[in-house]
Amino acid sequence: MSQQSSDPTIYDGLMFVSLGAVIVGIVFLIMALDGYGWSNGG
Amino acid sequence: MNNIVSKILIVANLVFSLCFMCFAGAVYSFQAGWVQKHEKAAAQVSSTKSQLDDAIKQKDDQTEKFTADLLKEKTRADIAEAKEAGLNQNLKQAIGNQGNAEKERDKHLADLLVAQKEAQARVTETNDARAEIKRLRDQNNDAIAIRRGLEDKNLQMEGQLAEASSRESQFLKEITRLNDLLRLNKIDPRDPVIGPVPRLIEPVDGKVEDSRKNASRSQENVLISVGSDDGVFKGLKMTVYRTSDDGNANYLATIKITDVYPDKAVGLVLEETRNGTIERDDYVTTKFGSNNL
Q1: d(Cα A17, Cα A21) in Å, to the nearest integer?
Q2: Distances in Å between the alpha carbon of B22 and those of A30, A38, B9, B29, B248?
Q3: What's the Rg (C-alpha) of chain B?
Q4: Is residue B104 part of a domain?
Q5: Which of B1, B11, B21 sits opposite A21 (nearest CB)?
Q6: Which of A33, A41, B147, B183 has the fewest CB atoms lying closer than 10 Å?
Q7: CB–CB of B28 and A29 under 8 A?
Q8: Residues of A with CB below 8 A from B7's CB?
Q9: Does residue B290 carry a pLDDT above 60?
């Protein structure tokens, strides 16, 4: 097994921030759908 | 992680993730107003649809009503047109009648003028006749008054005639009696009367009603209550006396009659015969005088 550098770079942090943003967006969508009573509007 | 493609994908992933988060947050932040607007709009649509249905129903009802009214009005219009046609015919007939009536009116006006002239002449004639009637009435009234006067006079004359007849019969009886008396005394009634015959003095009794003296108080006139109807005549001498309480007669004077009326007489007191003052209610008579003429 080759020795790889384990120090996180800025891109690791950006990936982490992107994951957090996706989670927050999903939470907003769930709350919005709850406001419609889980109806699709049809 | 070291190649450039991975870096670009990481950055793109970051950008898209941030965009997704922002859009989701925006949706969550404004979605409540959309629901209320949707419900309000749905209620308005429902209400509008209901109103629209009512309006359509009302429109249908009114359309039916208007159709019925239109039919009815058409019927009325047909009737009115028929009436109008009849009225037009009547109008034409009336115009014709009016023309005839105007002709009749003109004819009657001409007759009226003639009648007015005739009436005026009749009025004048009537006025003349009234004046004549008034004159004749006045004349009739005068004639009636004259007739009444004549009737009164006739009545009076008839009374006098009846009285004269009565007196004539009395006189005839008296003449018969006197003729008998003369025959008894052997005197012919046909012998002529020689010399003046003294006038017959009838016994008259009256009262003094008034006595007045003249301005120089030298003569006194006496008004007595007997006149020519009682046998008093002008020149007759009468005795004036007064009865006392014991019944004796006191001679006052002798009067000579100067004026005679039917029921009154005036006598002049002969001063040489005065034996007292003559007053009202003294008696006057012809019985005491031996020479009354």
Answers
A1: 6
A2: 14, 21, 20, 10, 186
A3: 74
A4: no
A5: B21
A6: A41
A7: yes
A8: 11
A9: no
Instruction: Say which residues have a Cβ less than 8 Å from residue B251's Cβ, sequence separation at least 6.
Output: B239, B240, B241, B275, B276, B288
Which residues pair with residue B250 across a beta bridge? B242
- Whether B147 is in a domain gets the answer no
Q: Find the domain containing B210 and state its range.
A: 205-285
Residues of A in contact with B16 (CB under 8 A): 18
Q: What sign does the CA torsion over B152, B156, B159, B161 have?
A: negative
Contact A35, B32 (CB under 8 A): yes
DSSP string for residues in B109-173? HHHHHHHHHHHHHHHHHHHHHHHHHHHHHHHHHHHHHHHHHHHHHHHHHHHHHHHHHHHHHHHHH
Q: CA B19 to CA B27: how far, in whole Å?
A: 12
Q: How far is CA B102 from CA B77, B109, B160, B211, in A?
A: 35, 10, 81, 99
Q: pTM for the full model?
A: 0.35
- Nearest-by-CA chain A residue for B27: A32
Q: Which residues of B touch A11 (CB under 8 A)?
A: 1, 6-7, 10
Query: In total, how many domains does chain B have?
Result: 1
Q: Among partner residues A11, A17, A28, which is closest to B27 by beta-carbon distance?
A: A28
Residue B165 covered by a domain? no
Binary contact (B13, A15; C-beta < 8 A): yes
Half-sphere exposure (Cβ direction) of B14: Cα atoms closer than 13 Å: 14
pLDDT in tens, B131-164: 999 999 999 999 999 999 999 999 999 999 999 9
Mean pLDDT across chain A, nearest whole number?
81
Domain assignment of residue B218, yes or no: yes
